[in-house]
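Standup notes, structure subgroup. Blocker cleared on the adenosine-5'-diphosphate input:
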Amino acid sequence: MTQPLAPQESAVLALIRENPFVGQQEIATALGLARSTVAAHIAQLMNKGYILGRGYVLSSEVRAFCIGGAVLDRKYHARTKIVLETSNPVESTRSLGGVARNVAENLARLGSATGFISIVGDDDGGQSLLKYMREIGIDVSQAVTTSERPTAEYAAILDAEGDLVLGIADMNIFDLFQPDHIERAWPHLAASNWVFADCNLPAEALSALIDRCRNASCRLAIDAVSTHKVMRLPKDLNGIDLLFMNIDEANAILGQTSPHTSEGAKQAALALQKAGAGMAVVSAGAQGMAVAGADTIEFINAVRAAPVDMTGAGDAMIAATLHRLLEGDEIFDAARTGALAATLTTECNASVHPDLSAELIEANRHRLTN
Ligand SMILES: Nc1ncnc2c1ncn2[C@@H]1O[C@H](COP(=O)(O)OP(=O)(O)O)[C@@H](O)[C@H]1O
Ligand SMILES: O=c1[nH]cc([C@@H]2O[C@H](COP(=O)(O)O)[C@@H](O)[C@H]2O)c(=O)[nH]1
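Run returned:
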C-alpha cells in the first residue's frame, strides 16, 4: 500500500534530504511556493511516513516496527503423560514472550533494523524486558510503561512431545493500549517499511492502526494470536497487506469449518483475501501453510523437524517471512524461509532461537524440500 508522493512533495523531500535543517521559508523560496504550501507538504510527508516530526528529522533506519504483546512466559514441560485433576511433575523455564516481542527479537536476530512498541508494567519484569530488547539493538523508545497493571504473563503447560496442553494468559494490561498510543508513535510506524501488529492489541487500537496504514507508505502485517483474540479484527480486512493465522483462528473469524488439511488451509486463505486482506498465510501445524499471494496460492510444506518445544514456531515463521520480504523476496520464497525458521525454533527449548541469524538460516537451507 504505497502512498505515492505528488511532484511538489517529492521536491520538498529532496531538499530536506539534502539539508535536514533547511527551513520552511528556504524551501518555499527555492521552489517558488508559498510558505503555507510548504508547511502542508511537510505535514503530508509526515503523514505518509517519509519524515519524522518537527525539525524534519529524516526517517530512522528502522525497517520493521512490531507493535503488540510483551509478555513474561513460563513453560512447564511434563516429562511423562499429563494426568488431569492431580499434581504432575514438570520442568519449568522462564523466558520473554509475547507474539509481537518474539517477532521483533527474531527480526533483529536475522539482521533487520527493528522497533518495538508495547505496554509493560512499572515492575522488574517490564523493565528487564525492555532492557533486553534495547541490548539486542531494538528501538524501544516508543514503548509505554504503566503503574496501573503488571506486565503481562503467559503460562504454557507442554506435554512430553513439547505440544501445548493448556495455555493461560494474564494480559489485562493490553486493554490500556489505546488508539492515542498509535497516534503518538505514528511518525515512527509510518517511516518503516513494514508494521507488524498482533491481536493482543484491543479492537479499537487495531482498527486505528489499520485505518492509518491504509493511507501510508508502510505495509501492515497482522497475526491473530488466538481464536479468542482474532475476533478483535474488523469484519472488513481491507488495509491489512499480509494476514497470518492458523486454521482454527481462520475458522473462528470466518465462521467456517475448513478442515485441518492443505486444502482447508487454502480455502481459508482465499476467504481471508475475499474479506479484504491483501495476502494471507494460513498455517496448518506440522503440515505447513497455505500462502495466498496477490494472484496465486501455494501450499508450502513444513520443514521436517525434530521438535522439543513448539512455542514460538509461528512467531519465527512470521519474522523470517517479513525479513525476507524486506530483503526483496516475493511472498512464496519468503514464506519458505519462514517455514525453515519455524522448524529451527521447534528444535530448541526457547520461544526465540537464541542463535537465530541469517547465517544459521543459510546453513540449514538444504533442509527445504519445496
Ligand atoms: N511439528 C512441526 N514440524 C515442523 N514445522 C512445524 C511444526 N509445527 C509447526 N511448524 C511450522 O510452524 C508454522 C506455524 O505453526 P502452527 O502450529 O500452524 O502455528 P501456531 O503456533 O500459530 O498455531 C507451520 O506452518 C510450520 O511451518
Ligand atoms: O494471548 C496470548 N497468548 C500467548 C502469547 C504469546 O505467544 C507465544 C507463544 O506462541 P505460540 O505457542 O503460538 O507459538 C508466547 O511467547 C506467549 O507469550 C501472546 O502474545 N498472547
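Discussed briefly. The chain has twelve helices and 16 strands.
Next: hand off to the docking folks.
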